[in-house]
Design goal:
The complex is a heterodimer of chains A (440) and B (356). Helices cover 72% and strands 6% of the residues of chain A. Chain A is built from 15 helices and ten strands. Chain A has a two-stranded antiparallel sheet with strand order 1-2. In chain A, helix 1 packs parallel to helix 15 and helix 4 (121-150) crosses helix 6. Chain B starts with a helix and ends with a helix. Chain B is mostly helical. Chain B has one domain (5-157, 176-352). The model of chain B has no long low-confidence stretch (mean pLDDT 88). The chains are: A mainly alpha (440), B mainly alpha (356). Chains A and B meet through helix 2, helix 3, strand 2, strand 10 and helix 14 of A and helix 3, helix 4, helix 5, helix 8 and helix 14 of B.
Chain lengths: 440, 356
């Protein structure tokens, strides 16, 4: 493994790890506030129990998210110092803003977790709302920085130096809105449906009680609308990629030959040597329709991009297919859930429909898998560029040799933390109240 | 000398670093006392530490993020140089930060057997020990000129400049150790690391005497620890100063210049005041004096190297980001501060304002 690949792998593993916590850090506070609000409205103690359980989950995950996020902010300098030297002044602004959002989140999470007996009920609910909102904002700011790497803006290059640097204009780059919308919806959909799935599994195993029924209903309330809206936001993202990053679109669709009325490939394997995609289902004019909303639109193929500027086509294509497939299943099961709920006019209908519960159980891991696949599409699809069209990843990596050592060390650390977090969450959140022992 | 926007940005970073040391640093010091908890009240000591750190350590930790982000936005070449040359110690520090934070939370939320909680406690404590040492060593590497010396070998350009294509960059003739180890591994950097550990432990023990109000035996435990750590910090600070001055560079400005006398006098007064206050059991006064002492030490370092970001040559102006970036960043800081400071005040009022 050469140093560049080691650095990219370390960054990938750090992001892949952190994104899980970042996503739950956005979704779980929303759930905990929802539960507390229901408790205040109904006086049903089960909702209070849920709010406390979810807030403990949020505490564990926020802590790990905070420290893994710290690692990332340092890794930008440890692995890509020259990228930061170039990009820091241009796209540092959203990171500064994220710093404030994160600070606010940490402060109010402290108040929420430790303030049940110390501040008024209203102040407590308010603290929860601030946690949920600042979590969303943090995510949006960081994704804006990523969007800039895909569609850089807010500067002019003259003689290898960025002049006329405008940080606010850099934030308003072309991919910023589609990417942040897609990620925020993904966070709610993944968190909601994963938690719904976990409680569906527990109910199916015979632990059918008010605790799990309420949890299931609240989680569906959060996750299902987001999952249903997600395909629309995906369409927006894809059209943005088609317009600003044609080589990435060609890679994720495994589309080699520039043509009008381009077909859509579903599945299949791109044969990079022979420059054709095999074993795919072809939908005539499908790609032109999706990418430009016109059946005869011309879609640029990979052949129009110099070979050395291609991203790894197979990885990007497969990851994209996976994301779309998982997202579609999530949207369908969400529609089914909401339909059941609406027809029965009661959330209890969800827990009584065992076929639906089994479908929800199946969906449990899908949101997070889709998010990992989606980030693979975004990040690997941008290669060989770290700043699209401006700076190559190979030119941005640190000169320090032996990068395989930190890569292995951090990987080990993340694996260890992952195992521990899962076991703690099982103890804290999922267990029925009947089995509960004294909490701190 | 006129004050530029870059200077203001630099002072903001120092103030944030100061806040991190006073708040976040003390949380690491708390971990050290968790490790060294002894005597019949061992368990009470650990519970007090956990209770004191619990609601606020994450907010305290964010000061470090502020420092890092401000550094790469406003002084990108400095961030690039630190990331490259201090790769190894910064990675170790990250390990410490990750393990400290997660272990603390894992212990708080674990229902497992006592042995499991003890294991997390140990991880929390050991990583609290390593992180301040490495942080101090990084500071030592900067102020001694070690980082600045190795910088020439790794081609770091000014802010907002594209690097030369990797293939075109000349490979440095210097050895791995010269660039990536020697700058931060010297007797001087080690002494700064140990001094940082002693100071933060002192700070934490002093804070804990206030936290332990209403429990005189526990207060006595931390009073004795604070006094011990204060003496250790004084001795090591003298050694560090001597080693630093002997090795030349900007550290020599810490003796002989007019302002340095004031800083040394301030640090000495604060140190003595905190020791006297501890001896007389005037804990709230001791807490203020302890914070002042650590602050004087920090500003002594900063003034010694001002206006250099990385001694011996990289100045604030040479490392600064384009002006518009600085202007907009300052605007964000002011706007963010308007939300942040009232919130922080509220947090501290709820949890530190009255006994509980």
């Amino acid at each position: 493994m050469n140093d560049l690949l080691a650095a990219r792998s370390q960054m990938a593993i750090s992001l892949a790890f952190h994104i899980l916590f970042a996503v739950i850090g956005i979704g779980l506070p929303a759930l905990m506030v929802l539960a507390e609000w229901r408790w205040i409205r109904t006086g049903d103690a089960v909702f209070l129990d849920l709010a406390k359980r979810w807030s403990k989950g949020a505490a564990i995950l926020f802590a790990v998210g905070a420290v893994s996020g710290t690692v990332l902010s340092f890794e930008l300098g440890l692995l890509w110092p020259t990228f930061m030297g170039f990009a820091g002044p241009i796209i540092g602004m959203p990171f500064s803003l994220e710093g404030f959002a994160f600070f606010t989140e940490a402060i109010f999470l402290g108040l929420y977790l430790y303030g049940w007996d110390r501040i008024s009920r209203r102040a407590h609910l308010f603290a929860g709302i601030v946690v949920a909102l600042s979590g969303v904002l943090s995510g949006i700011f960081v994704v804006i920085a990523n969007a800039w790497m895909n569609t850089p803006a807010g500067f002019t290059i003259v003689g290898g130096k960025a002049i006329d640097v405008r940080p606010l204009a850099a934030m308003a780059n072309a991919a910023a809105f589609p990417e942040t919308l897609h990620m925020t919806l993904a966070a709610y959909a993944a968190t909601g449906l994963t938690i719904a799935g976990i409680h569906a599994i527990i109910i199916l195993r015979g632990h059918d009680n008010a605790f799990h029924r309420h949890a299931l209903a609240l989680a569906i309330m959060l996750g299902a609308p987001a999952a249903i809206l997600q395909p629309l936001s995906g369409d927006l993202s894809a059209r943005n990629v088609a317009r600003y990053q044609p080589a990435k679109l060609a890679a994720l669709e495994a589309h080699f030959e520039t043509q009008r009325g381009a077909p859509l490939h579903i599945g299949g394997w791109p044969d990079v040597e022979r420059r054709e995609t095999r074993w795919a289902i072809r939908i005539p004019r499908g790609l032109s329709l999706l990418a430009f909303h016109h059946p005869n639109a011309e879609v640029q193929g990979l052949n129009d991009t110099p070979r050395e500027d291609w991203p790894p086509v197979a990885i990007v294509h497969v990851a994209f297919q996976l994301m779309v497939a998982l997202g579609s299943v999530m949207a369908l099961v969400s529609i089914w859930s909401l339909w059941r709920w609406w027809r029965a006019r009661s959330s209890d209908a969800l827990a009584s429909d065992h076929r639906l519960l089994r479908a929800l159980a199946l969906v449990t891991p899908m949101g997070f898998l889709a998010i990992e696949a989606g980030w693979t599409v975004t990040e690997v699809g941008r290669q060989p560029w770290i700043v699209y069209g401006i700076l190559r990843t190979a030119d941005a990596v640190t000169p320090m040799p032996g990068l395989i050592v930190p890569f292995l060390a951090f990987t080990l650390l993340y694996v260890l933390l992952g195992i521990i977090v899962v076991s703690l969450l099982r103890q804290q959140i999922v267990r029925s109240p009947t089995q509960q022992r004294g909490a701190p | 000398m006129s004050l530029t926007l870059a200077d203001v940005a630099a002072w903001v970073i120092v103030v944030a670093l100061n806040a991190y040391v006073l708040f976040g640093g003390a949380d690491f010091g708390g971990g050290v006392w968790d490790l060294l908890a002894t005597g019949p009240r061992r368990r009470e000591q650990r519970e007090l530490i956990s209770h004191a750190i619990g609601p606020i350590w994450e907010a305290n930790h964010v000061w470090l993020i502020v420092v890092v982000v401000m550094l790469f936005v406003c002084f990108p070449p400095a961030f690039a140089a630190f990331g490259t040359i201090l790769h190894i110690p910064l990675s170790l520090m990250l390990f410490g930060i990750v393990l400290r934070g997660s272990a603390f939370v894992f212990r708080a939320y674990s229902y497992g057997p006592r042995s499991e909680q003890r294991r997390w406690g140990l991880t929390f404590a050991v990583s609290s020990l390593i992180t301040p040492i490495v942080l101090g060593m990084c500071v030592g590497a900067i102020v001694s000129g070690g980082v600045g010396g190795a910088m020439a070998e790794v081609n770091i350009g000014p802010a907002a400049t594209l690097p030369a294509p990797n293939a075109a960059r000349s490979a440095s003739a210097a050895s791995f150790a010269t660039i990536y180890v020697h700058p931060w591994l010297t007797p001087f950097t080690l002494s700064v690391g140990v001094m940082t550990l002693a100071l933060l432990s002192f700070l934490a023990a002093t804070y804990l005497t206030v936290e332990a109000r209403g429990n005189p035996p526990l207060q006595e435990d931390f009073r004795r620890r604070a006094l011990g750590a204060a003496v250790a910090a004084m001795v090591i600070a003298m050694i560090a100063l001597a080693l630093g001055v002997a090795s030349g560079g900007v550290m020599t400005r810490l003796v002989g210049t007019g302002w340095s006398l004031a800083v040394r006098a301030g640090a000495a007064c604060a140190a003595i005041a905190s020791v006297i206050a501890l001896a007389r059991r005037q804990y709230p006064i001791a807490r203020i004096a302890a914070g002042a002492w650590v602050t004087f030490m920090l500003w002594g370092w900063i003034l010694a190297q001002f206006p250099l970001v990385i001694p011996p040559t990289l100045t604030i102006d040479a490392a600064a980001a384009p002006n518009r970036t600085l202007v907009e960043t300052m605007a964000v800081l002011v706007g963010g501060g308007l939300i942040l400071f009232p919130s922080l005040w509220y947090l501290l009022r709820v949890f530190k304002g009255r006994p509980g």
